[in-house]
Queue: 2 jobs
Job 1
Amino acid sequence: KVMDQLFGVHQLEKHLANHFGIARCVISAGDSDRQEKVVKNFGESLNESLDLLLPEGKNIIAVMGGTTMAQVAECLTNLESDKRHNLFVPARGGIGEALTVQANSVSAMMAMRSNGEHRALYVPEQLSSDTYRSLMKEPSILEVLNLISQANCVIHSIGRALHMAARRKMSEKEILMLKQANAVAESFGYFFDEAGKVVYKVPRIGLQLKDLQTVPLILAIAGGKSKAKAINAYMQNAPKQTWLLTDEAAANEILKGE
Ligand code: G3H
């Protein structure tokens, strides 16, 4: 019975990876919308995947924020060795989340749990363009931006467009625009329609979507039946080297239409 279930999940993983044309899917049993422990399983899968994939030498790992990222960060264990050293950085400047789920906090937590290092990127949300320009000349900010541009691993989640827009208190005008553009997914502060086309971008410094193409390791973590549409949309055009860590509920919902 257990072997049948394992075989079933393994088939589902292959099927979903083929569906998106990506490197690999890792599927946890259950539905993260309804079972807290499924997110813990994402964390364990992430830890194992990083241990397997991160090469020896110095790694720079750029991470995004969100509640999924904040929860999986807690699950990391030692990823350092004599030969492997990891530095965590936030992938982009603040995109309007509560402190505990901001990329800076996730990066600090991941570094703490895995015995790595981290650097924060302190850029306030609302800036005049003059202040912005002078901040961009600040050596401490330039140093972190430079690290982000050299990241060899990116870890991020995927959210539902309108849910994310409301949570980040985007303006009514922006929300109306997202609705008119049929935005269904959000990741990295970019919004996507069902075909995976970018329909809006929150302007922020740090990693841009086009930069992802040349990052060797990318892990996307998102699950739950409620996120199926968002995951399906974002993954259409995701870089092919992406590993998707998700759950059975999302995978079955995505493949239902086939
Ligand atoms: O960009 C995606 C969001 O960060 C996902 O947020 O993990 O809280 O659903 P969430």
Job 2
Amino acid sequence: RDAVSPEADVEEHQIEGALRPKNLDEFVGQHRVREQLSLVLHSAQRRNRAPDHILMSGGPGLGKTTLAMIIAAELGAPLRITSGPAIERSGDLAAVLSTLQEGEVLFLDEIHRMARPAEEMLYVAMEDFRVDVVVGKGPGATAIPLDIAPFTLVGATTRAGMLPAPLRDRFGFTAHMDFYEPAELEQILHRSAGLLGAPMEAEAAREIAGRSRGTPRIANRLLRRVRDYAEVRGDGRLTLGNAHAALELYEVDALGLDRLDRAILDVLMNRFRGGPVGLSTLAVSVGEEAETVETVAEPFLVRSGFLARTPRGRVATPMAWAHMGLTPPPDAAF
Ligand code: ATP
């Protein structure tokens, strides 16, 4: 179901590199975040100091990595990228922190998944630009304080609420990344198409934007699928016709639902009269793991108003019935 997944694998991350905006002016949407960030960066530059640590919260594919790169570029500072899961022991973090250059931007993706002992080390580093390196073991162990270069931490997390308060409090600024409006996604698509050397009809951009679930990564991915289709099966032009045909081939419907999303709604309505039905029953009925249904399909279905989670189970909304072209029974639970 990778056509509309907000996550990217290593290969896609590399492909995405070419499409990343390089400065704040090129970064589309997120007006409030852009304005706030621009202020933070400019005031730090005026005072000739490293800016406060910055936390970015928001789902995958909304531009957190891109923004971290832009922050470093705007500051004219080097950028180091690592992630929470890569930091399994505090020693891993000490190795990164102790080799930072003055003013360097450290991007720590998925910061909520860092090992606990490393978290404590990070608190001290963020506040005092110091790491305490522990030498020896047991009662004889001593902590040797080591000064590190002043740096700016840019942390990214899917949910800021999941961070322990002491960590959250050490960020001077939190940027909340929202889903994008269709018009913003259209703008991103035109820009990307230009960079791929394949200009696109306005109607095609509108069509792809409407199916991209508010997420630039998905928009860019669908664009690449449409381009491939246009090159191999079509006349090479990014027209509405080619966009329609390609997206139909990949089973991404007019509102961005894919095969699994539709299977869930289909089972919910046709077998369970619209619910309520429990997660595990629903998952078995579509032949998926409960976790897949809950973490992969449900967030979008709930966010876009197709599915409601109630204490008694999952319920299809009137919008879902309408989208699937079905009439709810008179006693349907909404
Ligand atoms: P993850 O945490 O899963 O890596 P992310 O939030 O860091 O996701 P990015 O890798 O920054 O997301 O963005 C994904 C793709 O979307 C990139 O190709 C990037 O160029 C594009 N993109 C994201 N935001 C914007 C934007 N505001 N304007 C233009 N392109 C964008």
